[in-house]
From TrEMBL:
Binding-site residues for Zn(2+), renumbered to this chain: D77, D355, H359, D396, H397, H473
InterPro entries with a match to the protein in the record: Alkaline_phosphatase, Alkaline_phosphatase_AS, Alkaline_phosphatase_core_sf
Catalytic residues of the enzyme: S127 (phosphoserine intermediate)
Keywords (A to Z) from UniProt: Cell membrane, Glycoprotein, GPI-anchor, Hydrolase, Lipoprotein, Magnesium, Membrane, Metal-binding, Signal, Zinc
Coiled coil: none
Lineage: Eukaryota, Metazoa, Ecdysozoa, Arthropoda, Hexapoda
Species, as recorded: Danaus chrysippus
Name of the protein in question: Alkaline phosphatase
Cellular localisation: Cell membrane
Alphabetical list of Pfam families matching this protein: Alk_phosphatase, Retrotran_gag_2
CDD domains for this protein: ALP
Binding, Mg(2+): D77, H190, S192, E350
Length: 633
């Protein structure tokens, strides 16, 4: 009896432990009573980023020749990983495929990493503190722009000290003689683009009236629109394309489409922008519709300001395509504008309305806006060389859209999962944890949303668990996709504030370390690179052989040797199946014929033979010359 009672007690205790462990209630509550004071400084985050670069260089990342003349940063506002996954499926299904196997343009980039998005004072970021991180390289407080975490939100006075004001990678590019610009589907004064030029204690201070309403003097704490037109670095941006005319116009006036101005200082900042450019004796154009954009493309000015809506641009699925340009068209114009500077440029491009659609639980609009970003990235990769242009695609924060259920392959990504809940009601493959799309339960059961009259309209709100006026951001890490010089630097998991420092390293701008400073890399890493480097048929034999011999030359300059025989073995092992007869012939040749120079010459001739056989023109790159020179790694 005693043994049986003990066994029952043990079983109860085990169940209690299991139940307790399942949901980890002991983890509730704050784990730290304060944020380290060091995190309130610029130096903490800059040192953190530079130390990470030093570690990457130690392992050989960021080594080799070349730098990024151009840097384009694409930002999908709120583009969480489930958003990318679902958008990929939607793109495929729009093209009569099952969808899951589809690849977005930036998913083809050779490097992907993850960035941690938290703010100094918040687990889940907003678009302002995150913009400060990925554009200025310093983490800040939620709601603040271009200032350190020593500035509490809405504290005008605290933001006026120069030591807390931050400059962005756009300013670093301008200081190097390059050009800079911004493109967005939101207001150009909205949090994400404003991170490239503004210093503000509150992201909402887009016009002077909002500074006044917060109880501060707009002459002391300048509003964001004013900073874009009159302050460094915004007034030097060669191209500014987006929405938000209302923030630039005074009360009592209306723009060309009837939107009322919101400024109470009687200033017309659009006119002041034009006056500034005229006084500087530079060519400029202000445009506000697609027709004017098309016209400007035929005769590009030195400076362009395009404001295509009173507030944000319309959602792509709802926009009038005859009057409002797409994100892809805006991106193409911006790259054309900036590419005229031989030194290069920095361009920030935001697909900002992904975020807005998620906040309203409008899943189809969110995914379609993601596909608009995908198209804009594709256009940029088409226009810019991978050799001298770094393209980075990422998000500022996540959202709480869930991709769930056990749907069969190829099932409509915007429809129900095919499963039912415990009450027999269908549920959507894509739903939200919280937001305005909550439906009241009847008799303890959810509503059948598929029976709603607006079901599957573009503004239909997906199912929600927790009722809120606006869906929240998510605290997930977000993906970073990179293509171009030193793209490997963007692999791994790191602070979001590392991003501009790594971009600046590759572009050789800013205050930190630069790829072109001649840092060396361990010889064993170069040996590893030689044996990992693969033949790419699209690039051609000459590129492959040139790279192998370049790495061999680097070793020689470091006093290290790798024999020609090993290099020959590496090259032969890398050749595709179509070269099997060539390999047999080579191995049968006498030893005096098996030299590296002979192999290079014969392979180039063999490539030409293949091309002639396929009636393809010979590539000019086949005139192959390798020079053994010192390359700074």
């Amino acid at each position: 009896m005693w043994a049986l009672g003990t066994a029952k007690l043990f079983a109860v205790l085990v169940c209690m432990v299991c139940a307790n462990d399942r949901y980890h209630p002991e983890q509730r509550g704050p784990r730290a009573s304060f944020v380290p004071q060091s995190e309130l400084t610029r130096q903490y985050w800059e040192n953190d980023a530079q130390e990470a670069i030093r570690k990457l260089k130690h392992f050989g990342y960021g080594s080799g020749v070349g730098k990024a003349r151009n840097v384009v940063m694409f930002l999908g506002d709120g583009m969480s990983n489930p958003t990318v996954n679902a958008a990929r499926a939607l793109l495929g299904q729009r093209n009569n495929k099952t969808g899951e196997e589809t690849q977005l343009s930036f998913e083809a980039f050779p490097t992907v990493g993850m960035s941690k998005t938290y703010c100094v004072n918040a687990q889940v970021a907003d678009s302002a503190c995150s913009a400060t991180a990925y554009l200025c390289g310093v983490k800040a407080n939620s709601g603040t722009l271009g200032v350190t975490a020593a500035v509490p939100r809405r504290d005008c006075q605290a933001s006026l000290t120069s030591s807390v004001q931050l400059d962005s990678i756009a300013a670093w590019a301008l200081a190097d003689g390059r050009d800079a610009g911004i493109v967005t589907t939101t207001r150009v004064t909205h949090a994400s683009p404003a991170g490239s030029y503004a210093n503000a204690a509150d992201r909402n201070w887009e016009n002077n009236a909002q500074v006044n309403q917060a109880g501060h003097d707009p002459e002391l704490c300048r509003d964001i629109a004013y900073q874009l037109v009159h302050s460094e670095p915004g007034k030097h941006f060669k191209v500014i394309l987006g929405g938000g005319r209302r923030e630039f116009l005074p009360l009592g006036t209306r723009d060309d489409e009837g939107t009322a101005g919101r400024r109470t200082d009687n200033r017309n900042l659009i006119q002041e922008w034009q006056t500034d450019k005229a006084n500087r004796n530079v060519s400029f154009k202000y445009i506000w519709n697609k027709e004017q954009l098309n016209s400007a493309n035929s005769d590009l000015p030195e400076y362009m300001l395009g404001l295509f809506e009173g507030s944000h641009l319309q959602y792509n699925l709802e926009a009038n395509k005859t009057t409002e340009p797409t994100l892809t068209e805006l991106t193409e114009t911006a790259i054309k504008m900036l590419s005229r500077n031989e030194k290069g440029f920095f361009l920030f491009v935001e697909g900002g309305r992904i975020d807005h659609a998620h906040h309203d639980n409008m899943v189809e609009l969110a995914l379609d806006e993601t596909l608009e970003l995908h198209s804009a990235v594709a256009k940029a990769t088409e226009m810019l060389s991978e050799e001298d242009s770094l393209i980075v695609v990422t998000a500022d924060h996540a959202h709480v859209m869930a991709y769930n259920g056990y749907s069969s392959r190829g099932r409509d990504i915007l429809g129900p999962s095919g499963n039912v809940d415990s009450h027999g009601k269908p549920f959507m493959t894509l739903s939200y944890i919280n937001g305005p799309g909550f439906r009241s339960h009847e008799n303890g059961a959810r509503a059948d949303v598929t029976q709603e009259p607006t079901f599957r309209s573009v503004r239909w709100q997906a199912h929600v668990d927790v009722p809120l006026g606006s869906e929240t951001h998510g605290g997930d890490d977000v993906a970073v996709y990179a293509r171009g010089p030193h793209h490997q630097l963007f692999s791994g998991v790191y602070e979001q504030s590392h991003l501009p420092h790594r971009m600046a390293y590759v572009a050789c701008i800013g205050r930190g370390q630069h790829a072109c400073n001649g840092a060396t890399v361990p010889a064993p890493y170069i040996v590893t690179r030689i044996f990992q480097y693969k033949y790419d048929e699209a690039a051609g034999m000459s590129v492959f052989l040139s790279k192998i011999q370049e790495l061999q030359c680097q070793l020689k300059q470091m006093g290290e040797e790798i024999s020609d025989k090993l290099i020959i073995t590496k090259i032969l092992m890398s050749l595709p199946e179509e070269y099997k007869h060539f390999i047999s012939a080579w191995e049968s040749a006498s030893d005096d014929k098996q030299t590296l120079d002979n192999l290079v010459a014969r392979l180039l001739n063999e490539e030409l033979r293949f091309k002639d056989k396929n009636e393809e023109p010979a590539s000019s790159s086949s005139a192959f010359t390798v020079k053994c020179f010192y390359t700074s790694l």
